[in-house]
Amino acid sequence: MNILFIGGGNMAAAIIGGLITRGWPAGSLCAVDVVPATLEALRGRYGIRTSDDGAAEALRADCVVLAVKPQQLRSVALALAPAVSGRLVLSIAAGIRGADLTRWLGGGARVVRAMPNTPALVGAGISGLYAMPGVSRAERENAERILAAVGETFWVEDEPALDAVTAVSGSGPAYVFYFIEALEQAARELGLSPEQARRGALATFAGAIRLALADTADPATLRARVTSKGGTTERAIAMLDAAGVKAAVATAVHGACQRAAELGDELGRDSPDSGH
Hints:
ProC C-terminal domain-like fold; eight-stranded mixed sheet; single chain
């Protein structure tokens, strides 16, 4: 399968690297970008083909991966429309709804939307995917193979569920970093050095995640195992509960989901400056 990447930024580079690591031939991959230095870096690092003519390259591709910024996607899609009819188009641009993208592409493309997250940059991502009507089983499998190069994948049956994916796993790394930031700050305030605070926070998160992945128990049970009656953890959890931290996290995720839906409305407008 020949794959064309429109946009050669960090996420596209991560997917390209993941595919090649899994044995994908470099000669079957091509990238198009408006920045020559980006293309030069991709050629040098991965040995793939590059071009500045997306429409011409799309005619040779079996799958076109749209990896540009959401605000750029409308103009990119309109330019590609004549060349992608009947082809699988995989969009990793956040917020752009399938119906809008399909319309911009002229109605003939087989569109799959995906929402990867930034841990994909180190091969540890997770991507939610949604297939528009008309996408075949084989095309779904090909889209999944591409995203599986950078982590786990799962399908949602209703497109609005991608807004929830965006709020939970798309934005989720920022929530984790936020908590790590707070834990580091507290460690420094308690007298640990910045280096000790960082190592302690990161190792604690990494170890807790490994433990959660290795155990079948739910998070509440795992938390209870660490929480001795009358102990330090019980005091800390009680203070978090008193401050409404769990409810605040849930409210924040709901807010992110709402904003994802709003961005879908804004970015899907057909005015040239939509989404800016």
